[in-house]
Design a protein that fits this description.
443 residues; alpha/beta; Rossmann fold; six-stranded mixed sheet; five-stranded parallel sheet; globular
């Protein structure tokens, strides 16, 4: 390790040589108004495992670093923080053998290694494979905002050597924790207020905790466009990329017609696919595929596009009007439900939509092992219980164990054959999905 790198590490890790400074230093990284991240409850149970790389991915400014610092505070063990945005650090992390040699030479007791923003490393997968294989005797925590460098490239080389988790903006359950001490009479009204704000402004921590959420959303959007898209992904047509964002926002919950989008943007189909892949790697949108259970009458090609945060979508649409004034309330609520479902899915679960050639459709189908559940979203507050022909078609064909109807005005249940039908208020969809897919409730 050269002198400049050593000086940088000591500056970033002021506890070195001052053991009493460790805990205050760790605590200084935790914002005073932070929230507990339920999304990571299962993943964090494994973060203490030694000689493994524990990967945490997610969009920029979703709270990944804060979540790791929170966990580190509970360990009260020496932590070496390694900022991979620094050029000196990138050079140092180009060789796993030399890196491990430097660690062993300079730290008698192996500290927990915390690598941040590792998407800036040129050969991240090979580097972490080399570190894990040399068994440093400590957990290795790794965070970054690009799933392409952290997940796609590392899946093969880190097979059996890593755990993986994704952290998205706050779920409704994470922000509603503050209501636990609220009097029951006031709780329902407060729940509706929090739900409406979450529906309109999303759950990015800085946005949620700000009194000027629209300004923070504007800053976030520009940060994604300029820093991630332009700098990291070298977007050649930023104007077309920006238009693609707007198209995706306008058509959230709709089928993606790549040929039509390519014509609008003045790009080739391959370029549109590439830009969509970049947006997915940045955790801004997701394309979900149709569920194809083997029936000839099913559509099996075009995906649907959804946003992982309603706030960014609404900022692109420049529309923060309350729900009762929105013309797009159906797609707004459906997109919100998608984000909540994704935040509560086990890592191996898959989410689809279902549509037949005759026009029958179900908003979401979740498959987890042999378990199958379905979800339909209704934005109308009509008190009438209704099971649609499309729902009957899907139930007859696949007999899902559970079918959730997200409905603002109903809370009820009944059985059709072997399928449990349940009407669920929107804010309860996440816990419902988690319960349906829990191991205790697993076939």
């Amino acid at each position: 390790m050269d002198r400049q790198t050593s000086d940088l590490l000591q500056k970033d890790n002021p506890w070195i040589g001052k053991r009493d400074a460790l805990l205050p230093w760790l605590q200084d990284h935790i914002p005073s108004n932070h929230l507990k991240r339920h999304q990571l409850a299962e993943a964090q149970k494994r973060w203490g495992e030694q000689n493994k790389a524990h990967l945490l991915i997610g969009p920029r400014q979703a709270g990944k670093s804060t979540a790791i610092w929170q966990w580190l505070c509970t360990r009260e063990k020496e932590v070496l923080f390694i900022d991979c945005e620094q050029t000196l650090i990138q050079d140092w992390c180009s060789s796993a053998p030399l890196f491990i040699s430097d660690i062993k030479e300079n730290f008698p007791t192996a500290p927990i290694l915390f690598f941040e923003e590792v998407q800036h490393l040129k050969e991240a997968s090979l580097f972490f494979k080399g570190i894990v294989d040399r068994k440093p005797g400590t957990p290795i925590l790794v965070s970054g905002s690009s799933s392409y460098s952290l997940q796609s490239q590392t899946r093969e080389s880190l097979a059996g050597r890593a755990t993986r988790a994704r952290l998205l903006p706050f779920s409704y359950g994470e922000i509603a924790c503050e209501l636990e001490s609220t009097a029951p009479l006031a709780r329902t009204q407060k729940q509706e207020e929090l739900f409406t704000r979450h529906l309109l402004y999303g759950g990015y921590p800085d946005v949620w905790l700000s009194e000027q959420p629209q300004i923070i959303l504007t800053d976030l959007l520009e940060s994604f466009l300029i820093r991630d898209a332009s700098d990291l992904h070298r977007i050649k047509r930023p104007d077309a990329f920006r238009t693609l964002l707007s198209l995706s926002a306008q058509q959230a919950g709709s089928l993606v017609n790549v040929s039509e989008w390519a014509q609008i943007l003045g790009l080739s189909r391959d370029s549109v696919y590439a830009y969509l892949e970049i947006l997915q790697s940045m955790h801004i949108i997701e394309l979900i595929r149709p569920f194809a259970g083997g029936k000839r009458s099913e559509l099996i090609r075009s995906p649907k596009v959804f946003w992982l945060d309603n706030g960014l979508r609404n900022r692109l649409l420049a529309d923060f009007r309350p729900p009762e004034l929105r013309q797009d309330m159906g797609s707004l609520l459906e997109n919100w439900v998608f984000g909540e479902v994704v935040k509560h899915l086990p890592s191996l679960a898959q989410i689809f939509f279902w549509r037949s050639t005759s026009g029958a459709e179900v908003d979401f189908v979740v498959r987890y092992g042999e378990k199958l559940i379905a979800i339909e979203v209704k934005s109308s507050r009509s008190p009438k219980k209704q099971i649609t022909r499309s729902m009957h078609s899907f139930i007859d064909a696949y007999e899902p164990e559970s079918f959730g109807l997200v409905h603002p005005g109903l809370h009820d249940r009944e059985m059709i054959a072997n399928t449990n039908i349940q009407w669920i208020p929107p804010r309860e969809i996440g816990p419902w999905v988690k319960h349906c897919l829990s191991r205790d409730n697993f076939k």
